[in-house]
Amino acid sequence: MSTVNSRQRKIWYGVGILLLLGPVVYLGFPARQTAGAVADAGGLGVLSQKRQQYDLGEATLGKVDPSSSAMNLLLLGLRGPAATVLQLKAIDYQERKQWAKLRATVDSIIMLQPHYVQIWKFQGWNLAYNVSREWDKVDDRFYWVKEGIKFLILGTTRNQTVPILFHDVGEFVQSKMGVSDEKKFFREFFVRDPDPRFKTTAGEPGPDRTINPDGKDSYLVAYDWFVRANEKDDNDGVIGVKGKTHVFFRQGPARALLYFAKTRAEKGLFDEHIPAWDRAYKSWMDDYGKMDFLGLDDKKYRLNCTEDELKALAEENGVTLQEQRRIWAQNLDMTNFRQWRDIADLERTPEMLEARRMSFEGKKAYNEGRNSDTMLPDKTVQISDSQKSLEAAMTQWAKLAEKYPNMFIDGDNVEDCLLLIQYYRVVCQLNLRNMPDTYPLKDIWDKNPSRHPDAERNFLIETRLQQRK
Fold this sequence. Notes:
Blueprint: H1 6-28, H2 46-53, H3 69-75, H4 79-95, H5 99-112, H6 117-131, H7 138-158, H8 163-178, H9 183-191, H10 218-235, H11 246-249, H12 252-266, H13 270-288, E1 292-294, E2 300-302, H14 307-317, H15 321-335, H16 337-347, H17 350-367, E3 374-375, E4 381-382, H18 385-403, H19 411-430, H20 442-447, H21 452-468
Antiparallel strand pairs: 1-2, 3-4
Helix pairs in contact: 3-4, 4-5, 5-6, 6-7, 6-8, 7-8, 8-9, 8-10, 10-12, 12-13, 13-16, 14-15, 17-18, 18-19, 19-21
């Protein structure tokens, strides 16, 4: 029979509670703050320090209207439903075109749920793609594209171990500056922002340092973000790349270099053209092509693969060589690996460099106004400088097409040729002359009637951009 009475048991229980409470208080004590950093308090407040070190705490309630339904939910501890209410408010503000309230509401959402990745992805996309489309002026659209990118950049600072957010920043920069309808303006604005707040000390337009701190080309900025995303994936990614196939996620740096190489000739930087394509080709073939990926049923494959490597992988995967070759070919097609390999290889040739150079000279002659034919004293007509240059460029492209029949698999090459022909058509119209029955690249024009409006639009955008400069 126990000799401990009820009063003594209560005392022992109280002592036990105090002993257990001591470590909890010691480890969970709030960390002392310094100016911009958490003070090192040894073991005291170690859990709070770790929460702030790894950005796991969500101590703020956000800038929420204290009289709103969202605040009522917060006071009941319902942070998730409160964020949902704010999401609905954000959509409502967007539909009403109340942009200031939309931005403030989005800020509240991320303060409530800073580690919910989908909120960062959705609202970043919404600002850069949906909200920007609501504006007419290109400058205003660019402002909201930047807001979306800045939003995602903020997301990476709050979620340092989430590779997909770093990748998405690179994807936004790459696609909005290089693929969107306004790409020719956006790429220029990326290094020479029209906002007067970003003028340099010399009074010239400069970049918005939040998204382009070093004033680099947009594709090189995207490259940096893709590299960081891959490093996060290698080292400390805890959420990984959910929502994106790994083989596409990892190609980011190589693709950015391929796109960057395309722009060298567009800017007239012909000395950089072949070196840029050499770098891109190496990155695509050696860096990306030699990575190991897992396909269906966790079968390993490699895109740039020799016959001996195929045999070794088949043995490692425990499948036949035929099955390994099927897995390999399937992923080659899915990633367009061979197509980009061939494009980069072609662009490194002197013949393609010459075609790019001649195209640039033809467009330059047009934009300088050298478009009028001249009547000579003997009554013969001397065609304009721009027409001569454009015909020479089209002839060079036609020679390339004969030597490299697969050149026009790349849709961008077709677009470049159609744009060149559009310049030629306008020069003929300026001189009150019909297009000749035959001219170089006529078969490309005839085979792509659905792309004629795009060529006309690209011509207007490109010439307008030159006038703006």
